[in-house]
Amino acid sequence: MKRTKAPRKVVGYLRVSTTEQAQAGFSLDAQRARLEMFASSARYQPIDEWLVDDGFSGSSLDRPAVQDLLQRIERREIAAVYITKLDRLSRNLRDVLTVVDLCQRTDTALLSASETLDTSSAVGRMVVHLLGTFAEFERGRISERTSDVLGYKRRAGKVYCKNAPFGYRADGDLLVEVPEEIEALAMMRSMRSNNATYQAIIDALDARGIKPHRGARWYPSSVRSVLASKMNSEVA
Asked: Which of 70, 77, 117, 207 could form a disulfide with 112 if both were Cys (CB 3.0 to 4.6 A apart)?
């Protein structure tokens, strides 16, 4: 006899952090009431089950109820997920987009009672794409700002990474030249400009007793990395 597959459920997801519990509109009771009203709309199905993360931050998806939800979505046990706001799901946009992608792959509707988000509709899917575009834009801006800050620190001779680049040592927040390494760096550039092999450069460094900043010995890749360093090229 063929086993009948259980129908997919409609789940209401609630989350509150300890700092939000006293605020109007954020309590679990307020969220539940909002979703019950939302689900009573003619176009939406009633909620079959509630999943609740009580006292958890929205900074990540590392929460018991949301992890249970994601696993069940992956198994295609959930037909739709109702939330009061996107930030109940996560305050991290990347996490939100990860969940949205999972819902789209498993044909699971994700509906928010506050934002115009219903992945079962064309408009909802457009909103998701816009969110993704803005997320990509913001990630690009963060990358640009980080690059600008690192460039400024390099030019100002300030520490800009965990390990000081070859030719320098960290002295508080400043980078201080190491004379022996600066001389070795000049030798490396000169040899390379005269078509010396990386192994020949390694032999010359070993003969001088010059050690790399990382590891116990030089390799062609470490020589190449030192010569390609932005710090070393900017102060050349």
From this structure: 117
Report the helix count and the strand count for the chain, using DSSP H and E: 9, 6
The structure's pTM equals: 0.53
Q: Are residues 121 and 214 in the same domain?
A: no
CA distances (Å), 50 to each of 13, 62, 109, in order?
A: 6, 18, 16
CATH of the domain at 111: 3.40.50.1390
**Are residue 30 and residue 96 in the same domain, yes or no?**
yes
Residues 6+ positions from 40 with CB-CB distance below 8 Å:
46
Mark whether 19 and 114 lie in a shared domain: yes
The predicted structure's pLDDT at residue 9 = 95
**Residue 153: which of 44, 235, 45, 87 has the closest Cα?**
235
Give 107's contacts (C-beta < 8 A, 6+ positions apart): 76
What pLDDT is stored for residue 203 in this prediction? 93
Q: What is the pLDDT of residue 27?
A: 87
**How many structural domains does the chain have?**
2
Query: How far apart are the C-alpha atoms of 106 and 72, rounded to whole Å?
Result: 10
Write out the residue range of the structural domain in which residue 230 sits: 158-234
The amino acid at 150: L
Of 6, 26, 10, the closest CA to residue 18 belongs to 26
* Mean pLDDT over the full length of the chain: 79
Cα–Cα separations (whole angstroms), residue 121 to 48, 110, 166, 191? 21, 10, 56, 64
Classify residue 2: in a domain, yes or no: no
